[in-house]
Every structure is written in structure tokens, then in C-alpha cells.
Q: What sequence folds into this?
């Protein structure tokens, strides 16, 4: 098989959608289940959309796909992994659906999981996984699957469970005469307040930035959940019907973020770019999978997220692989998914993506694949970080909520903002969406 | 008498027949020539237009694949949508700002560069060059310049001025987007005005000068009326172009802060491609189409009043 990696722009798909004259559509309220794959007349080509363009990751996918094709030459002739840039990923994917050209399988971002899971767009893959010999479904962590389930159905496999952690530039922190975060972790004093003090002092000393919540950039506010989870805060109730931005925990957490930014200069203000991995900042909160971006240019460490007033809460970013009901070969695609994520291949994938399998979540397995991280770091940050972790905010109407909250929160990012009033505005803006 | 008549009638008939076949051949050549254009317009203009109208009458959820006839529901929804009203106001602000700034700056530059002075060719090239730069590349460079710690504020700091956070301030974000767009396209309008200025007959100017008209009087009474068709053309192009602004908003502000730069096309994009609400987005596209159509009709109707050579 020749590996095919396609990079497609969202607008090409958009054009296809705009000119699609005949729309064949049907109400798909009832969920579909992937069955036993019947042998097709001709071996089929499967496509899976992904948002990574990392050559070594794509090479690993191709290697697994080649093994599947070799085992099932009558079913599948080729598996194509199509890389779509992360920023446009969900938009491009839904545009393909609109154009009547869905991939067979797709990576799905956790924030959009409820929307995809409940829409009927994906097939229930649980029976296909259970029917696969040696799959060991019981080894999958319930906490990892929760977001992807609806009733008894499992609508995607959460192949990546990457914990958020704090990366620290120990050179900058030591130069500023600040305590080492690793020591604070050991002594049990690793709190958000301690991190804020270190960040503010280091930024003042280095002339660079302090603590960067990566990818937040005053737009992607859901990334702040890594901070506010320490306050036990959440944007909406668990059933997704009530706004909780005005709850005391959220007000306290947002006040903390606001003051750390505008009073202390511990966090970079709006319109300032700072890349921790380029040495622009003392600390950053991001996923452990970013460790590959580190080089020898400065000394660094990685520690668990700090504790807030309500203690420490592990947060993970998840990504699932789903099989589209509208695809041409959902049964074959589900069979491939079962192969792609069986225990043996999950161990290979663990090189890049912490798996949802209990047996594989050990410092030894992960350490073999992550030479940059010590076993202690992996144990503390990854293995323990996935236990009892929560995911970032998700909702069936996430895109609308994301935009509405973003627009209202813009008023918070000025020095003299009234935090409570802004959060009340946020609730006023999103309550109609939550009630929908 | 009948014979001569018959003899004169015969060649007449022959000529008519010959002319008829020539007409038919001409007609076929004409049809053959316009066919590609007509087919192109049908496939890429008329068909999508009809399709969008059809979509606008449906509730279409891409994810679930549901496509249900909804009558005028999407149009009713537009009337009660505060977000749409906000985006219409933002579009109005953007279009007015852009047209006024762009047309006046382009005209000013054209008049200045129409002088017979050394170096004008270099300046013309300089002002025109942004037109040929990729829009997204141009906008990304400006997004760096306009950041709080970006080049423009760095320059202002050198002058002792504390510059605002251009793209994050409610008052400055739209202004920044307008200015970026003006600098991008002012060169094209400048060239159109230059061509028009150079077609103003020298002897008319000369006659006015002999009559004692000053430079301003000559510009107002002779140059402006003579280039008025170009002013009309440039205004239409700029207004219609301003309603289609998208990439600049997507790259520079993402519609923020708040919704202050969420112009109509960006709002439409959000509804369709972010919220998967293609039916409602199609209804908004129909609204946009009607707005552009009405604006163009108004301009064509009023051209007789103010365009010189249409009188």
C-alpha cells in the first residue's frame, strides 16, 4: 500500500458543499449500530480525517493500517489518513458532511463530543469492539469512555487522553531566585497562588512572560478550565441546562485570573504572544503531548497542575475516533477501528497518545515512548493525571456557547473590569442556548 | 409591367434569402460565442443562487443529516435575531468607513501622483504593490503589527505615545480592520482614478486657466465632473467589496471584541460553518444578496443625476 496523506483546505470542501445541488438527506434521529462487516464485492478504501500532520505519527498509522490490509485483503485495499489543520478541523469535517462526502472515520475533539454523539451522525461501535477477539473491552477506563457514551452505546473510542500539566522553565525561575515548583510539589505547597507569585516575580526579573495558559489567547476560554477546576468551578451544570458562571466558585476563579493578569502581570495580557517552548515564558499549562516541542535550549521540568482552594483537579484533553453512519462502509470502518485500537496497537499509539487502557497506563509503557520524560514525571503527571480526571467543557451546543461566552468575556479582559457583572452578562447570553 | 417587376423582385428575393442565411449563421456564431458564458453563469451563479434560496426554506442540520421544509421560519427568525441586527450595524460601519476613507485617499493619491514630478512612478508602484499581495498574508502581517506589543505600538512608544491595544479595544478594532483594508486596496482605486485623470482633455483645463480659474476651481468644476463615471464605478466596487469582507475579520479579530467586528458575512459564516445551521445561514445569504442588489440598483438609478457623461 502506498501511504496517502492529504492535506485539504476547508474551503475546498466548502465549495463542494455550496455547489452540491441535490441534497440527499434523511432524518437520522435513531442511532445506528455497526455490525459484522460483510465482504464487499471489491476491497474498499477507508478514509480517516485527523488533525495531526506529524510525519512520524502518520507513519505509525500507516504501519498499523498496512497490517490490517495484509490481514484483510478482501475487505480493505487501502486506508487513507487525511490531515486537516487543527484550527479548521471541526468546521472542515462538518462541511464534508454537508457536501455528502463524509470520511469513514474521523478524530473528534472532546468539546464537540456531545454534539456528535447525540446527533446520530456516528454509529455505535461497542458491539464491534466487543466482538473482536482479544480486544479486552473491560480494560477501557469508564471515566475515559463517559463522554462518548449515550445510553448503552459507545459512539467513539477515546484514543487520546492527554493530561494537562505545568511545564516550567527552571532556568528562568532559578535566575529570578524563585522556589522550584518541583520542591513545592514535594512539600505539598504547589498551589495556584504559589505559581502566580513565581510567575509574576520571574516575569519581572526576566522581562519575558510569566504563566501562559497555552492556546487560550483570550478567545479559546475553555482552556481556562484547567485553572478554574482548582476552584471547583464549571461553566454550566452537569446536565448542561443551567449557567454556573455566576456561582461563587467561578467568580472567585475568574477574579483570580483577572487579577493575576492585570494586577500582578503573572499572566500575559490580551494581544501579547508568548511561546513557552521558544523560551518566552516561565511556565505554561498545556497537554503533556507537547513535551515533544522541547529541546535543549533551556532547562525545564514538568509538574502536575497546581492546587486551587478546592484542591487539585486533574484535567485531560480527549480525542475520540468515530465511525460515520453516512459513510459508505460503516461496518468495515468499525472493524478497522477495533483493529487500530486493540491492546497491541494501543501500546504502539501510546507513544503519542496516552490510551484509555488501564493496563497500558504505566510509567514503564509510557516511558519507553517518551524519552524526554523521566518515569517519575510520567507517573506523577500522566498515570496519576488520567485517574479521576475531568475533561474540558463540552456541550451539545458547544460551538454556539463557545462564541457567545467568548463575546461576553471580552469585556473581562480590561484592567478595570467588573468581574461579577461580566459573568452575569455571560449567563444572560448563554441561558437561551442552554435552555434550547 | 409585370415582367420588369418580376425581374426586379427576383434579385430582391435572392438577396433576402442570402441575407437570411447570413443572419442565421451570424446568430449561430453569436449563440456559440455566448454559450460558454451562459453555461458558466448558469452553473456558478444562477444554480447556487436558486439552491441557496431553496436551502433557506429548510431546517438543515448537517450533523444529524436532517433536512426539513421550514417555510419562512428562517426569515421570521432573522427579524427577531439581535445578533443579526448587530452584524448589520457592524457591516454598515465598516462599509461607510471603508468607502469614505478608500475613495477619498485613492483620489488624493491619484491627484498627487498625476503631477509631472520625478519619482511619481516609484510612488505609484509603492501604493499599488499591496493589491497584488495575498490578502491573508497581508492580514497576518498586520495582525502582528497591530498587537499590543507589536510594531505599531513599538513605533508609537518610540515617539513617547502609549498606543492602544488596537485589535482588542471596542473602539479601535473596527477602525484597525478598515485601515488594513484601505491600505490593501487603495492602490487599485488610485490607478483607476489616475487613468481617469489622464483622460481629462488638457485643452479644457487650459481654457479654464485662461479664463482665470484657480486650481481648486478647475478641479471642482472640470476634473471632478469629467471623472464622475470613475467615481461611480469605484464607489460601487468598494461598497460591494466591503460587504464581502471576511478574511480580514477572521484573521484579525475573530468578530471581537464582543461582537463589534462581526460583520454580516462573518455572522453568516458562523451560523453555517461553526453552528452547522445551514438553513438560517442561507436565509442570511439571501438577505445579503438583496442588499447588494438594492445598493447597485440605487447607484445605477442615481447615476444620471451626478455622472457627467450620462446627462
A:
Amino acid at each position: 500500500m502506498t501511504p496517502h496523506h492529504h492535506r485539504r483546505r476547508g474551503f475546498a470542501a466548502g465549495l463542494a458543499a455550496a455547489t452540491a445541488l441535490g441534497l440527499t438527506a434523511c432524518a437520522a434521529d435513531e442511532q445506528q449500530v455497526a455490525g459484522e462487516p460483510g465482504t464487499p464485492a471489491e476491497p474498499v478504501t477507508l478514509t480517516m480525517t485527523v488533525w495531526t500532520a506529524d510525519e512520524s505519527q502518520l507513519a505509525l498509522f500507516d504501519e498499523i493500517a498496512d497490517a490490517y490490509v495484509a490481514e484483510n485483503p478482501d475487505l480493505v485495499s487501502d486506508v487513507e489518513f487525511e490531515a486537516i489543520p487543527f484550527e479548521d478541523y471541526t468546521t472542515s469535517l462538518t462541511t464534508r458532511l454537508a457536501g455528502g462526502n463524509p470520511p469513514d472515520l474521523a478524530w473528534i475533539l472532546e468539546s464537540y463530543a456531545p454534539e456528535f454523539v447525540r446527533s446520530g451522525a456516528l454509529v455505535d461501535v461497542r458491539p464491534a469492539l466487543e466482538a473482536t477477539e482479544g480486544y479486552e473491552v473491560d480494560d477501557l477506563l469508564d471515566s475515559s469512555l463517559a463522554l462518548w457514551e449515550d445510553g448503552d452505546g459507545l459512539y467513539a473510542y477515546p484514543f487520546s487522553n492527554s493530561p494537562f500539566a505545568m511545564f516550567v522553565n527552571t532556568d528562568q525561575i532559578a535566575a529570578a531566585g524563585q522556589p522550584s515548583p518541583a520542591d513545592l510539589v514535594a512539600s505539598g505547597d504547589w498551589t495556584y497562588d504559589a505559581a502566580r507569585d513565581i510567575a509574576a516575580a520571574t516575569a519581572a526579573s526576566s522581562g519575558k512572560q510569566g504563566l501562559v495558559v497555552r492556546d487560550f489567547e483570550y478567545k479559546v476560554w475553555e482552556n481556562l478550565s484547567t485553572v478554574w477546576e482548582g476552584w471547583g468551578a464549571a461553566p454550566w451544570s452537569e446536565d448542561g441546562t443551567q449557567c454556573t458562571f455566576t456561582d461563587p466558585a467561578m467568580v472567585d476563579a475568574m477574579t483570580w485570573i483577572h487579577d493575576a493578569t492585570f494586577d500582578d502581570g503573572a499572566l500575559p495580557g490580551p494581544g501579547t504572544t508568548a511561546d513557552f517552548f521558544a523560551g518566552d515564558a516561565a511556565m505554561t499549562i498545556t497537554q503533556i503531548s507537547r513535551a515533544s516541542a522541547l529541546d535543549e535550549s533551556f532547562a525545564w521540568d514538568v509538574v502536575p497542575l497546581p492546587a486551587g482552594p478546592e484542591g487539585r483537579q486533574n484535567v485531560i484533553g480527549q480525542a475520540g475516533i468515530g465511525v460515520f453512519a453516512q459513510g459508505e462502509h460503516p461496518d468495515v470502518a468499525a472493524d478497522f477501528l477495533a483493529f487500530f485500537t486493540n491492546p497491541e496497537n494501543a501500546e504502539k499509539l501510546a507513544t503519542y497518545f496516552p490510551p484509555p487502557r488501564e493496563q497500558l497506563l504505566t510509567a514503564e509503557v509510557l516511558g519507553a515512548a517518551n524519552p524526554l520524560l523521566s518515569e517519575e514525571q510520567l507517573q506523577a503527571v500522566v498515570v496519576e493525571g488520567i485517574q479521576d480526571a475531568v475533561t474540558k467543557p463540552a456541550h451539545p451546543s458547544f460551538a454556539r456557547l463557545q462564541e457567545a461566552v467568548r463575546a461576553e468575556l471580552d469585556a473581562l479582559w480590561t484592567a478595570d473590569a467588573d468581574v461579577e457583572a461580566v459573568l452575569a452578562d455571560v449567563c444572560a447570553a448563554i441561558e437561551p442556548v442552554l435552555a434550547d | 409591367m409585370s415582367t420588369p417587376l418580376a425581374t426586379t423582385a427576383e434579385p430582391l428575393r435572392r438577396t433576402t434569402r442570402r441575407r437570411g442565411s447570413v443572419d442565421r449563421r451570424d446568430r449561430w456564431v453569436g449563440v456559440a460565442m455566448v454559450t460558454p458564458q451562459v453555461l458558466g453563469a448558469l452553473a456558478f451563479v444562477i444554480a447556487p443562487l436558486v439552491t441557496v434560496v431553496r436551502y433557506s426554506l429548510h431546517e438543515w442540520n448537517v450533523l444529524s443529516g436532517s433536512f426539513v421544509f421550514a417555510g419562512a421560519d428562517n426569515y421570521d427568525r432573522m427579524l427577531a435575531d439581535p445578533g443579526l441586527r448587530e452584524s448589520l450595524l457592524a457591516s454598515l460601519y465598516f462599509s461607510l468607513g471603508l468607502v469614505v476613507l478608500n475613495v477619498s485617499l485613492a483620489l488624493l493619491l491619484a491627484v498627487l501622483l498625476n503631477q509631472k514630478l520625478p519619482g511619481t512612478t516609484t510612488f505609484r508602484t509603492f501604493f499599488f504593490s499591496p493589491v497584488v499581495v495575498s490578502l491573508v498574508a497581508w492580514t497576518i502581517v498586520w495582525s502582528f503589527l497591530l498587537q499590543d506589543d507589536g510594531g505599531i505600538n513599538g513605533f508609537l512608544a518610540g515617539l513617547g505615545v502609549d498606543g492602544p491595544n488596537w485589535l482588542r479595544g471596542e473602539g479601535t478594532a473596527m477602525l484597525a480592520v478598515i485601515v488594513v483594508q484601505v491600505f490593501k486596496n487603495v492602490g487599485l482605486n488610485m490607478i483607476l482614478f489616475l487613468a481617469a485623470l489622464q483622460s481629462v482633455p488638457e485643452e479644457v483645463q487650459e481654457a479654464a486657466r485662461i479664463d482665470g480659474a484657480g486650481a481648486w476651481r478647475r478641479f471642482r468644476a472640470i476634473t471632478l465632473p469629467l471623472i464622475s463615471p470613475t467615481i461611480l464605478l469605484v464607489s460601487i466596487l468598494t461598497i460591494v467589496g466591503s460587504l464581502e469582507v471576511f478574511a480580514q475579520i477572521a484573521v484579525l479579530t475573530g468578530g471581537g471584541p464582543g461582537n463589534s467586528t462581526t460583520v454580516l458575512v462573518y455572522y453568516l459564516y458562523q451560523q453555517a460553518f461553526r453552528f452547522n445551521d445551514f438553513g438560517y445561514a442561507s436565509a442570511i445569504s439571501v438577505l445579503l444578496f438583496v442588499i447588494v442588489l438594492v445598493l447597485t440598483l440605487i447607484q445605477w438609478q442615481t447615476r444620471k443625476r451626478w455622472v457627467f457623461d450620462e446627462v
Remarks:
- Residues 112 and 120 of chain B are 9 Å apart (CA to CA).
- The interface with chain A takes residues 44, 47-48, 51, 60-68, 147-150, 165-168, 254-259, 262, 270, 273-276, 278 of chain B (CB under 8 Å).
- Chain B has two domains: 2-42, 81-310.
- Residues 1-9 of chain B have pLDDT under 50 and may be disordered.
